[in-house]
Write a structure and sequence with these properties.
Helix 3 runs parallel beside helix 5 and helix 5 runs parallel beside helix 6. 48% of the residues are buried. 30% of the residues lie in helices and 16% in strands. The chain contains 10 helices and 14 strands. Helix 1 links the parallel strand 3 and strand 4. The protein has an 8-stranded parallel beta barrel. A two-stranded antiparallel sheet has the order 1-2. The chain has a two-stranded parallel ribbon with strand order 6-9. The longest helix has 19 residues. Bound molecules: 2-Phenylacrylic acid (8OZ). 2-Phenylacrylic acid binds next to loops.
């Protein structure tokens, strides 16, 4: 198949949206939701400041109370949460932007103190991850999970379908299902966390089953042109591994080609870290199996983005941390202007400082 080459500043037709450029704001966890896991006016301001991106993707938002793994992350399951997100989508649309919600269930990357009734988090198998979560304003070891019963799977799929309906009710342009970075759907995919012996574990087909059922349910509910997906095939984030990721992800993309989500978003390498953690993994083999929009992410700068777009290896490039400190990232990349460095102390939690107070570049007086 042929992919037209482009630059970051060419428009792109994504489903029924016209993106004015190929620059996407990647999902970024900021832990600033209020009571009831409802986003605040500050969040509306934060995304609206970044509306010049071709597309904004929100921070990961839990589909259910059990899906939460960190303090103060927003939800997309209650009427109050939907009402809160409406203020965000309105502010972004009023500012001329487009925005997808990223929906997640963290699975085993949680802590009993965040779970309803103080129960164990759920996972494909009862294996604790060797990683930490952020609760009570500190980084704490995640709790040991319990394995989901086979009989619980249909209700889990249903909670993704409802979250998708809620996402559209909140005024979003679409949903990105988070199946990356070692959270629940990724835990089912990769065999470091999935030791099940039923239809959802073992073979590549079985480990892919839950994600494909979720994608089919969401697409049936809101349409393929509003449904997207994020994957991180080789990322060690959150202590997840797979013994042989290439055939797993090749198969998965072949199945996704039949479902045709509006884009597939792939984290190349270790999330937020080195790009070359698995030099033998062939990302191009995935891209060649998909005829829809391909979104690449991880450690991109303008030079690498220009090269990948010119080579036709991706259609869209997602930038994460640079968007935190540079609300006008699109203009800065266009002008080759210097980027502000992010303040790590204000990444997770807090208020306006380090969130909505990063300035845009001064526009030179005419
Ligand atoms: C950083 C801190 C907490 C969560 C991810 C949602 O890695 C996250 C996340 C990132 O996908």
């Amino acid at each position: 198949m042929s992919h037209k080459t482009a630059t970051l500043f060419d428009p792109y037709t994504l489903g029924d949206l016209t993106l004015p450029n190929r620059i996407v704001m990647a999902p970024l966890t900021r832990n600033r939701a209020g009571a009831g896991q409802v986003v605040t006016d500050l969040t509306a301001q934060y995304y609206a400041q970044r509306a010049s991106a071709g597309l904004l993707i929100t921070e990961a938002s839990q589909i259910s109370p059990e899906g939460q793994g960190y303090q103060d992350t927003p939800g997309i399951y209650s009427p109050e949460q939907i009402a809160g997100w409406k203020t965000v989508t309105k502010a972004v649309h009023d500012a001329g932007g487009r925005i997808f919600l990223q929906a997640w269930h963290v699975g085993r990357i949680s802590h009993t103190s965040l779970q309803p009734g103080g129960k164990a988090p759920v996972a494909p198998s009862a294996i604790r991850a060797n990683t930490k979560t952020f609760v009570n304003n500190t980084f704490t070891d995640v709790s040991e999970p319990r394995a989901l019963e086979l009989s619980e799977i249909p209700a889990l799929v249903e909670s993704y379908r409802v979250a998708a309906a809620n996402t559209i009710a909140a005024g979003f342009d679409g949903i990105e299902i988070h199946a990356a970075n070692g959270y629940l759907l990724d835990q089912f995919l990769r065999d470091g966390a999935n030791k099940r012996t039923d239809a959802y574990g073992g073979s590549i087909e079985n480990r892919s089953r839950l994600l494909l059922e979720v994608m089919a349910a969401v697409i049936k509910e809101i349409g393929a042109e509003r449904t997207a997906l994020r994957l991180s095939p080789v990322s060690p984030a959150n202590d997840l591994t797979d013994s042989n990721p290439q055939p797993l992800f090749n198969y998965l993309i072949e199945q996704l080609e039949l479902l045709k989500p509006v884009y597939i978003h792939v984290v190349e390498g270790a999330t937020g870290g080195p790009r070359d953690v698995a030099p033998d993994f062939d990302f191009e083999a995935l891209r060649q199996r998909y005829s829809g929009a391909w979104m690449a992410n991880n450690g991109y700068d303008r030079a690498l983005a220009d090269k990948v777009l010119a080579d036709g290896k991706a259609d869209l490039i997602a930038f994460g941390r640079p968007f935190i400190a540079n609300p006008d990232l699109v203009e800065r990349l266009r002008a080759n202007a210097p980027l502000t460095e992010v303040d790590r102390d204000t990444l997770y939690g807090g208020g306006a400082h380090g969130y909505t107070d990063y300035p845009a570049l001064e526009t030179a007086a005419a």
